[in-house]
């Protein structure tokens, strides 16, 4: 999975743009994206938000036609997943990623900041999608569009500048730091994403080499520093203070910094009756902003459904189904794609799971063996359209929302949090 948020200054506005009430763009495999298309907006001013409103309300399109918009101030906005086949170059839509610069370049030039951002974004796309400068086209260079006045830029000059100096490769994600890796391979973050979203047992073993040896499966001792002070203000509700006390008792750290909004604490509450197949747990999100605490609570399951318990592990994983162990997993999750399909919180750093290995339809928390690693323990939703009553095959150890609207609200908060705070989220799980 390529992640445009790796680009410094990129703003993720995908969830903030106007969309058609019923139409949706289709998806294509990322491998088929082999061209970069450059457009101008043909307007002196305007933003991704304004272009989206126009494409939906006037053109009756599913959403904004471009994948990225670079506004006059050089701000880069990520508007659509690259896998979405949006409308911007007709017959070439299915293999092109579209960048639009605000401006009317028949009569004006891009700003210096726009040139800089276009260069950064194009080079990043070329590298991530393995696209050569020869395949960076202006809109009018695509077949059938010779008469189109878009983007009115010297594309040969742009391609030449893209050829000149190959950008040094993106900062590598040092996977070996977390996993002593005999092959010494350094994984890039984007490679890691693609791995954790479709995990097969051999792949799991490959990226978690410590799991191959019985002797080294013991999770490392993690020292969690309790927060030095507990500045619970007067206005904190008794419910939030209960959660804060529970987390403190476990030695979990809590985000108190309220200088910007959405400094989220994400806490899973697992109920004592481990009945599989029920959404009987809760996910609590609370944060403080300008001295005031906020809280949201959602119905989730922290346990696997009976499907995975009974079936999948018999064929799939000889160690049994994964159940996330209670604990605080620092920086464990980031926004990514669940099974390459939709945005969710995906696992990016190690967590500890207990594998239930007697397949008896009862969740064993005390008898299973523990493993620490990257298993694709994501935080995602069940059914896309309606609230689910039965967990069934929805969860194989993931933390799963029953209600899609709840999940959308949760992801909106996470997106806003990403804009203000760090890329990573810490997930805490408590047995209540
Ligand atoms: Zn165009």
TrEMBL record:
Domain of life of the native organism: Bacteria
One MF term in the entry's GO annotations: zinc ion binding
Pfam family, one: Amidase_2
GO biological process: peptidoglycan catabolic process
Domain N-acetylmuramoyl-L-alanine amidase residue range list: 22-152
Organism: Aquiflexum balticum DSM 16537
Family assignment from sequence similarity: Belongs to the N-acetylmuramoyl-L-alanine amidase 2 family.
InterPro entries for this protein: Amidase/PGRP_sf, Amidase_domain, PGRP, PGRP_domain_met/bac
Name recorded for this polypeptide: Negative regulator of beta-lactamase expression
Sequence ranges assigned to domain Peptidoglycan recognition protein family in this UniProt record: 13-143
């Amino acid at each position: 999975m390529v992640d445009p948020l790796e680009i410094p200054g990129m703003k993720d506005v995908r969830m903030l743009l106007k969309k058609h009430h019923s139409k949706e763009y289709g998806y294509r495999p990322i491998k088929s994206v082999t061209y970069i298309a450059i457009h101008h907006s043909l307007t002196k001013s305007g933003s991704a938000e304004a272009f989206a409103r126009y494409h939906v309300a006037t053109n009756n399109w599913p959403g904004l036609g471009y994948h990225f918009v670079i506004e006059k101030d050089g701000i880069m906005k990520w508007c659509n997943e690259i896998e979405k086949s949006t409308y911007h170059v007709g017959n070439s839509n299915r293999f092109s990623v579209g960048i639009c610069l605000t401006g009317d370049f028949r009569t004006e030039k891009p700003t210096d900041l726009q040139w800089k951002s276009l260069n950064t974004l194009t080079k990043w796309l070329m590298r991530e999608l393995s696209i050569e400068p020869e395949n960076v086209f202006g809109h009018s260079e695509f077949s059938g569009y010779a008469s189109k006045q878009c983007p009115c830029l010297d594309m040969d000059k742009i391609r030449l500048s893209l050829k000149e100096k190959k950008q040094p490769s993106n900062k590598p994600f040092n996977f070996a730091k977390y996993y002593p890796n005999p092959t010494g391979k350094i994984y890039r973050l984007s490679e890691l994403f693609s791995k954790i979203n479709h995990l097969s047992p051999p792949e799991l073993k490959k990226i978690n080499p410590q799991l191959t040896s019985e002797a080294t499966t013991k999770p490392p001792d993690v020292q969690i520093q309790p927060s030095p002070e507990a500045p619970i203000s007067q206005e904190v509700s008794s419910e939030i203070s209960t959660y804060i006390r529970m987390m403190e008792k476990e030695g979990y750290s809590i985000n108190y910094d309220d200088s910007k909004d959405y400094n989220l604490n994400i806490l899973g509450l697992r109920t004592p009756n481990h009945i599989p197949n029920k959404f009987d747990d809760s996910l609590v999100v609370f944060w403080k902003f300008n001295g005031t605490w906020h809280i949201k609570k959602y119905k989730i399951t922290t346990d696997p459904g009976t499907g995975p318990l009974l079936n999948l592990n018999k064929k799939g994983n000889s160690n049994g189904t994964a159940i996330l162990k209670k604990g605080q997993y620092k920086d464990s999750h980031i926004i990514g794609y669940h099974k390459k399909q939709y945005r969710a919180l995906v696992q990016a750093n190690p967590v500890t799971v207990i594998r239930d290995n007697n397949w008896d339809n009862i969740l064993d928390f005390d008898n299973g063996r523990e493993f620490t690693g990257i298993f694709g323990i994501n935080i995602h939703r069940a059914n896309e359209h309606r609230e689910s009553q039965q967990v069934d095959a929805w969860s194989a150890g993931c933390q799963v929302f029953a209600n899609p609207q709840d999940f959308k609200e949760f992801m909106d908060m996470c997106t806003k949090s990403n804009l203000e705070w760090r890329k990573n989220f810490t997930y805490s799980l408590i047995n209540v």
